[in-house]
């Protein structure tokens, strides 16, 4: 999948631009250069989705999820350049046809999964 900024919502692009600034995400030291400001911090990314992107759905992530690849690319930059070693993702998406008996965390049709990104 080719990553293009035109494939994501402008509000997500704006958020990334807003927090990816000097004195928020990094600092610049005349002697040492660029220094990340996220050392020993935990980043949590929450994905709220209106579609089921599971592999067995009619909208599998490989063809329909344009959000996660961009955020993961940004997380990689944050880890490598800005010192954020720990990132966790939380996915909230509909689980159509599943109820509490199916083990969906009892959220009346919505499932929440936490996946550490190491």
Topology diagram in text:
Layout: H1 10-19, E1 26-29, E2 33-36, E3 42-48, H2 61-64, H3 67-82, E4 86-94, E5 110-117
Parallel strand pairs: 3-4
Antiparallel strand pairs: 1-2, 4-5
Summarize the structure.
The protein is α+β, with helices and mostly antiparallel strands and 118 residues long. It contains three helices and five strands; from the N terminus they run H-E-E-E-H-H-E-E.
Name the shape in a single word.
Answer: elongated
The number of domains: 1
Strand content is 25-35%
Radius of gyration: 17 Å
- Mean pLDDT over the full residue set: 74
- Percent helix, as a range, is 25-40%
Give a short account of the largest sheet. Answer: 3 strands, mixed
Number of helices: 3
| C-alpha end-to-end distance | 22 Å
Pfam families: Flavodoxin_2
Protein name: Flavodoxin-like fold domain-containing protein
GO molecular function, one term: oxidoreductase activity, acting on NAD(P)H, quinone or similar compound as acceptor
Domain Flavodoxin-like fold: 5-78
């Amino acid at each position: 999948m080719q990553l293009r900024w035109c494939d994501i919502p402008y509000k997500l692009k704006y958020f990334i631009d807003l927090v990816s600034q000097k004195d928020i995400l990094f600092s610049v030291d005349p002697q040492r250069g660029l220094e990340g400001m996220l050392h020993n911090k935990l980043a949590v990314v929450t994905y709220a989705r209106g579609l089921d992107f599971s592999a067995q759905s009619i909208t599998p992530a490989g063809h329909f999820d344009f959000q996660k690849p961009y955020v993961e690319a940004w997380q990689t930059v944050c880890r490598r350049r800005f010192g954020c070693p720990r990132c966790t993702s939380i996915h909230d998406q509909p689980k159509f046809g599943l109820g509490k008996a199916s083990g969906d965390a009892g959220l009346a049709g919505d499932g929440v999964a936490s996946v550490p990104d190491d």
